[in-house]
Amino acid sequence: MKSSTSKSSVITQILLAAVAIAIGYLLLFSKSAAVITLCQILCGGIVAIGIASIASFFLAGDFRRIDRYGFALGTLLVLMGLIGLIRINDVTANFEFLTGLLSLILGVLVLQGTVQMKVLDYPIWILNLVISLASIAGAFCVLSGITAITGRIAGFSSWILLICGCSCLFSMMVTWICILLAGRREKKMEAEKAAAAERAEQARIEAEEKAKQEEQARKAAEAAQAQAIEQARKEAAALAKTEAEAEAQAQREAQAQRDEMAAKAAEAKARAEEEAKNEFPPVESPELVFGSDQGDENTAQ
After folding, report:
1. Quick one: CA dihedral 169, 170, 173, 176, positive or negative?
2. Three-class SS of residue 80?
3. What is the rounded CA–CA span in Å between residue 192 and residue 166?
4. Are 75 and 19 contained in the same domain?
5. Is the residue at 251 inside a domain?
6. What range does the domain containing 202 cover?
7. Which of 71, 194, 233, 236 is such that its CA lies 20 to 30 A from the CA of 40?
8. Rounded to two decimals, what is the model's pTM?
9. Helix/strand/coil (H/E/C) assignment for every residue in 96-116
10. How do residues 63-108 score in pLDDT, each as one tens digit?
11. CB burial readout 254-289, b (16+ within 10 A) else e
């Protein structure tokens, strides 16, 4: 929709420039051209531009939008052109003023192209600025009736009209080229940005993958370390248990040996005592014997 609207605007500018060039050329280089005929061409061109604007309003779908006034502008131009054809004598009487007005419109269009070139950063905007300012200044002189300037050059208004028409076409062509180049440059920059963004995204994904792998490796190392520590702890506990059992076993064996040695010592002692008793029997005491006999005697008595 926007493309169609832009095309209709370009067509309108081309028609304006073509009408200006045709009228300016006929005024300067055709001796048989009558002013009334040129006025008819001018009014007919205005009607053609209005019809094109109305057609574009429907073809471009601008009737679906509230900020499009192609139909109103086209209708106004058609009516103005028809009124000009009807009152062709009045138009002819003010022909120089109308050509100055058309030159001013074309000069402003060239100035717009200058602004576009400046914004797009193309150095040729300086040349276009000079042309647009010269065109606007010449049209201003024609419209204001400064005879001190317009009276010194024969056909001044016609030259200004021809120059403005040619300048408008030149400006449109250069602006179109600049916009085309700017579009390609923007597409290239967008492609580079997209490629850079893609590379950055790929790098981010790779970094995340690498970080994930490092995290997994770290966790695996921690798990292996924990497992090794647990295994070492178990082995240390088993070794401590084995040592404790061995020490307890050694203590038990030592205690058993001590008990056995004590038992043997006690047995040897008892045997020695027994042998001592057998070797030296006990002697009976005489007192005991005598006492025993006396008792027996007392008993007998």
Report:
1. negative
2. helix
3. 39
4. yes
5. no
6. 96-241
7. 71
8. 0.56
9. HHHHHHHHHHHHHHHHHHHHH
10. 777 777 778 888 988 998 899 889 888 888 888 888 888 888 888 8
11. eeeeeeeeeeeeeeeeeeeeeeeeeeeeeeeeeeee
